[in-house]
Amino acid sequence: MKRANYIFLLLIAGLAAALAVAVSVGSESVSVFSPDEQGRAILLDIRIPRVLLGACVGASLALAGASLQALLRNPLAEPYLLGVSNGAALGTLLAFVLLGDVAGARPVMAFAGAAIATIAVYQMARSKAGMNVERLVLSGVIVTTFLSSVIVLLTSLLDAARLRGYTFWLLGDLSQATYNGFYLTLAAAVAGTILLTSQARALNLMMIGERDAFDHGVEIGRVRIIVFGMASVLVGTSVAASGSVGYVGLIVPHIVRLVVGSDNRLVVPMSAFAGAIFVVLADTVARTAIAPRELPVGAITALIGAPLFIFLLRRS
């Protein structure tokens, strides 16, 4: 237990350091401690809300990935690969095209899209013998491909200016960060951490087998609703604010399990902190690598996450 406490403290310190570095670094050189009027505007209106939003998005996606992997007993269960992110992206696009600037439309539509995609994948993967791992992955690929096609079809209806902005956002973009978006994703991340951690014992038992979990008093249906519902909220709010940032929910829980083991009482909350660190640092690279131009943060997470996942696969 002492080791787990040390790791928690290390993650908290790492997140604080990542936030400090991200706020200090950018395409414009700004003094953090004694900024002028322009520097203060850059820090308060652009850089700080972007960095804080990135931390919340990373925490939300990592939480969703860790809980889905535990619930489905599948190391490949991740919002991006299962089509949940694409469902949220399609919902956001529909709000963007049909509802314009209606307040709250994008998060609500993103949540609805994520929930529908989650239910579709889960229902397609079920069989009489229970959850089938191969069918789950295949169902995720099918839903992701279908939703991607619909997104491409709808984007063809946009004019050139809106198309460029939406395409960049779709790849993962934190440049439009606002404090309202940060507050929304923060609320989702905090609620998700508390609620999913409260289900950690049940998830531990379900990783052994649903029948064994049922024999130990776990209400399997209730746990499924909580995890799927909370994962949809987390992914929906994140995608509505930042677009589809891939590999966070896949890689981060794996790395945490390598360090602390498979106990979800540790994996779930630690994944939130580790995911926040990962996205904050990735976005810092995206902002500074080719400054003053920017890269999509989703491209950076994919460049880091894909080789790392291949390494983890070869190691195991």
Chart the SSEs and their pairings.
Layout: H1 2-24, H2 37-72, H3 84-99, H4 105-125, E1 126-127, E2 130-131, H5 133-155, H6 160-170, H7 179-198, H8 200-208, H9 210-215, H10 220-242, H11 248-260, H12 264-288, H13 297-315
Antiparallel strand pairs: 1-2
Helix pairs in contact: 1-2, 1-12, 2-7, 2-8, 2-10, 2-11, 2-12, 3-4, 3-5, 3-10, 4-5, 4-10, 7-10, 7-12, 8-12, 11-12, 11-13, 12-13
Summarize the structure.
78% of the residues lie in helices and 1% in strands. The chain is mostly helical.
Written account of the structure:
The protein has 316 residues and is mainly α. The chain has one domain (2-315): ABC transporter involved in vitamin B12 uptake, BtuC, CATH 1.10.3470.10. The chain is 78% helix and 1% strand. A two-stranded antiparallel sheet has the order 1-2. Helix 7 runs antiparallel to helix 10.
